[in-house]
Amino acid sequence: MDFDVFVALSTPWSLWDFVAREPRVEIALHSIHYLDLIRQVLGDPAGVHAKTVGHPNHKIAQTRTSAILDYGDLVRCNLSINHDHAFGRKHQACEFRVCGTEGAAYLKLGVNLAYPRGEPDILEIYPRGGSTWIDVPLKGTWFPDGFVGRMANLQRFVSGEDSILIGSVEDAWNTMALVEAAYQSSAAPATPLAKKP
Predict the structure, then answer these.
(1) Full-prediction pTM beyond 0.85?
(2) pLDDT score recorded for residue 51
(3) Which residues in the chain belong to E strands, given as ranges?
(4) Structural domains of the chain, ranges and CATH numbers in brackets
(5) Are residues 77 and 45 in contact, defined by beta-carbon separation less than 8 angstroms?
């Protein structure tokens, strides 16, 4: 299985004044949502290799991240995030590509493109034995509709209608452990190249 997150866009960080003062930005405020979704689909990884960096055009701590989540020898999970691709909309992207033995899925998160106006989200699947991609109709938008399920679950849990929380504190802890591991990996030195004999 392959799970790729590819983001190349121009995020208007100036919309949020506090961001310029934060020592941790990209993973903690943005990619955390991708990591949470990946964990929901694939479970917890054994570890992470990550590097998160800033950009010479501004003073925000980090706006670009590369990360590989370790799910063993049969799953490749990669995030390539660049919030500084400010060269027009033509080659910008915010997408997930999931490929497995039974088919594939493609998701475009339109909200991040031309933010805050955004574009429509797109979900397509390619089922096993298929010959073409199939559009999956979507209702609503990522914000706020993407949170409806969890908010409804929280309300039903409090009223006793649901017995478990989809997003429990324990589950959130695991996402934060992955975020912390990514920052630790980014701070650690890379494996050096061997010196010529």
Answers:
(1) yes
(2) 98
(3) 2-8, 47-53, 64-70, 76-82, 93-100, 103-108, 122-127, 134-135
(4) 2-187 (3.30.360.10)
(5) yes
